[in-house]
Recover the amino acids of this structure.
């Protein structure tokens, strides 16, 4: 009796389009391009940083003393291809009140090791945070702020974020 297929399954993995972990472009029968890696390799660093816009906004400019402040932080890739930006921390972005990261005087616990903040083409990432008008002074103690003007800031976690335009600020007033 004659066998129809004399080859073993291990011989057929090279031409099998359904091998796990292998991406195939259905139209052309070849491998698909990893556009994020391609754009990272060929897009100049200066252009990558200019492609990302950062904005921070609040739902109001004036707040009563003790009223929580709602922050909206938006990052947007303005280009029609993916962009990756290297960061100094696994926390890819931070917010601050008058220079105090996340309204805290307590040293941060996240290790400083590089990471990447990735954006698909024309992607917009929006985050919301609430600041209860308090400053953290110890792990378990917060103190309320006084009336006055406060600067809220959002930035991508890079030491050169200001120089590269990866920071935005807005000012609010707290009244009695």
């Amino acid at each position: 009796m004659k066998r129809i297929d004399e080859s073993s399954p291990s011989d057929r993995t090279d031409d099998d389009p359904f091998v796990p972990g292998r991406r195939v472009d259905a139209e052309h029968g070849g491998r698909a391009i990893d556009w994020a890696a391609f754009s990272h390799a060929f897009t100049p660093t200066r252009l990558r940083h200019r492609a990302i816009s950062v904005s921070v906004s609040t739902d109001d400019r004036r707040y009563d003393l003790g009223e929580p402040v709602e922050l909206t932080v938006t990052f947007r890739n303005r280009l029609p291809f993916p962009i990756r930006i290297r960061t100094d921390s696994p926390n890819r972005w931070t917010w601050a009140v008058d220079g105090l990261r996340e309204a805290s005087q307590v040293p941060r616990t996240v290790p400083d090791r590089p990471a990447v903040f990735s954006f698909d083409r024309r992607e917009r990432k929006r985050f919301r945070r609430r600041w209860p008008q308090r400053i953290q002074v110890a792990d378990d103690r917060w103190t309320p702020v006084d009336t006055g003007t406060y600067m809220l800031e959002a930035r991508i976690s890079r030491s050169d974020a200001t120089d590269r335009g990866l920071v935005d600020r807005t000012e609010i007033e707290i009244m009695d």
Observations:
- The mean pLDDT is 84.
- Residues 30-158 form a domain with the Immunoglobulin-like fold (CATH 2.60.40).
